[in-house]
Design brief:
Number of helices of chain B: 8
Oligomer: heterodimer
Radius of gyration of chain A: 26 Å
Strand order of the largest sheet of chain B: 1-12-7-4-2-3
Number of helices of chain A: 23
Largest sheet of chain A: 6 strands, parallel
Strand order of the largest sheet of chain A: 1-10-7-4-2-3
Number of strands of chain A: 12
Amino acid sequence: MKPLTVNFRSKSADTLQDAQIQQSIEHVYTGFFKGRLVAAGDTPDWEDLRTKGKAIKDHTIAHLDYYLGQLADNVEKNGGSVFFAEDAAEARKHIIDLAHKRNIKTVIKSKSMVSEEMGLAEAMNDEGFETVETDLGEYIIQLAGETPYHLIAPAVHKSRSDVAKLLDDDYKEGDRVPDATELTMMAREKLRGVFERADMSVTGVNFAVAESGSIALVTNEGNGRMSTTIPRVHVAVMGMEKIVPSIQDLSTMLRILIRSATGQRISTYVTMVNGRRTSDEEEGPEEFHLVILDNGRQKLLADEQMRESLNCIRCGACLNACPVYRKVGGHAYGWVYPGPIGAIVTPVLTGVKDASNLPAASSLCGACHDACPVKINIPRMLLELRYRNAEGSSDIEERTSSAAERGIWKAWRIGMMGRKRFDWAARLSRIALLPIARGGWLKKAPPPISGWTSTRDFPLTAAKSLKSRLSSRAKKAK
Amino acid sequence: MADRAKFISAVTASLGRSEILAPPTETATAAFEDADTAKSIAERALATASERSSELANRMAEAAAVIGWKVHRSANREDVADVITSICEQKQATSVLRSTHEVLTQIGVDTAVTNTGASIATTEHSGDTSSDLVDESKAAAFKADIGITGVDYAIAESGTVVLHPRSGLSRLVSLAPPTHIAVLRPGEVLESLDELFAMERNDFLLGDLAGSMNLISGPSKTADIEGTTVTGIHGPLEVHLVILGND
């Protein structure tokens, strides 16, 4: 998928003015955010679980080379095949070649953010395979020709009448808008036929277990189960970080993932498969293929400041908690991963040099850090990226700071370093700004700080500093 | 084609090392817990399930009802058969599919269903997995009105039914038909996910891990349209949990 991070400002502005979308995305707060709080409150050892989840992920990422090798060995031992893909194009080509070799006609896709990185469904359709998204939200998005709005609720911005237009060819503006149940049943009807004829599935991976070569899939709808049951070929795609060492670790990780995602104690379905069907089964795939994707993750891993972002289990809790995401919406972020986690991984994963607006779009309130089930310190990384953007690095096209701005900050730093210097600087700033101030306020600052006063006024330095007022009062009192 | 060795050595380099280090064994992950510990946790989980069976069954019933199972408490086997008969009648079922769980034979499920005029078949196959037969059984599952299974385990904390697909317990019997009935016996309910995965790990260490596992917690659902929860998007629209009392 081609990153469009450069459009952050214009996309945000569009969304802010769209009353219908503003209303639709409220659900991530009223539904998911509040649901998570209730679920966490009902779980007596919640903080311990988060600590444990973080420790499991820290350990796994610190030994990712070891666990990747172990996982690949065990998948192969179970009769599956493993493909390591350096980038999205390589993964896409591998899967399309496989589909050609196996004479595949219909591909059912279960929800997977990694496959969004590959633009897989579109590419497979272009190759002539009937490729259908089976998660209802993803299906709606596919019909609309859009990209997901949210990690776990891809169509959260769509209204019922939007969905009716997509699902029902006869629906016209002005008709009675079908309710959610009617619309869901329409989709069930359409997708059942697709399931029955599917001969290949592509699913994501919520967790891959290194010691046993198993993968775990979490769904509420049951499309993950259909995908691991009906087609003769099952392809699972995962980012290289999605590993846990032990089967038993799944109990910790599933608990924090599901509660943080939707506020449920458990999702309707959790499916664990160890590869293709066993010899005494007549149902289930004959072949299992695991595709492990890098696509820029090595850069996150090699960067000690950013490595922690690989702990992410893609629950979406940081999106739901983020006051910026909840207003500018998912499409503003311009790539697969929106919200706070997207703002830190997108610039690095895509390597685009025009993503400086993403880390800047945060009030640093820390709600994402509080919400994260594995305690990823997102604000710290946002600051780090802002620092890099301002100071300049090979990863960015141009510094977000102008020479004048940097000059001002340098002067500021010098001025703040000593009491005398500070007093002088304060006096100087008053003298410099007095001629253009009105009634003690600067309404229009000169460049380069003119941007600062475009939405608020700047107070003029007081004629007498607090310190000197206090000391003259002390003298009077004597 | 990307090379595994090249890929993994790039990861090693990204971690700032020149060779793969064995991970320290003192860590939060359970990967380094020895087989004896795993075995004793698993045995304790099973012992608890049987010692506290009626308390766990009550908790299971409560948690299951919250997430959308229609829960039936049945004092004895005849009651279970009656519940199944009445669901078949209510659904006007003509074709029913079932697993070969022992409990279903014990309650006389075949008679309970055929009494209503519906046909019933098991998902057990002859061992012939030619593609014609596979297609045939798939079509049968999609055509069936009701799927009936026992449970391999249940989880009280979350109201979850655990099934390990195998010959006699197809993957589709609990998924494709619009109604699923699961029959639970006392002693089959574990406390939480922790116990389940401890037992899975023990099975794994013994070389006995099932090929796949499904945790089922209520009817298939979605909230993808305006956040409104709707049941029955892909899997069953209606799920019944029949809990057999101690008899």
